[in-house]
User: What shape does this take?
Amino acid sequence: MKACEICPIIETHNDGEDIQVLETEYWRAVLDADQRTLGKMFVTLLEHKESISELSEDAWRDLYEIMKTLENSVKNAFDPSHFNWQCLMNNAVVADESTHVHWHFHPRYKAPVEFDGEIFYDTELYSPKKRTTHVVDKTVLEKIKSEAIGG
Assistant: This one.
């Protein structure tokens, strides 16, 4: 089995490439460059654990607070209809790598959303097999962060 692909990203802050939204003692939230749903983020455990059953009670409580913060912030900024949280870790298993607990945060939208002159379509909401991408540059990610979280 190969080493964890996520641990070096955590240690190096992805060499400054990620737009970090928040960090706590246990978790770091960053915006995904693929904004196929406006406000999409990764929330990653800062220590290496391969299963959610390995999380401490403190890490769970902290995650709960992060979920409330992110959902409230994104709801106020972009008014999604609801949110999906996924902890899959399938890619690591397929690549024969060590898994690392992280969550995919997907705000979901019933209608297209315009932000910074771009239209964001949530094509998967009504057709789960119709996955699209909407990669944005770092400038747009910074604007999303500023709008949703502030600064």
About this structure: The CA atoms of residues 98 and 114 lie 38 Å apart. Strands lie at 19-23, 27-31, 41-45, 82-86, 102-108, 113-115, 118-120.
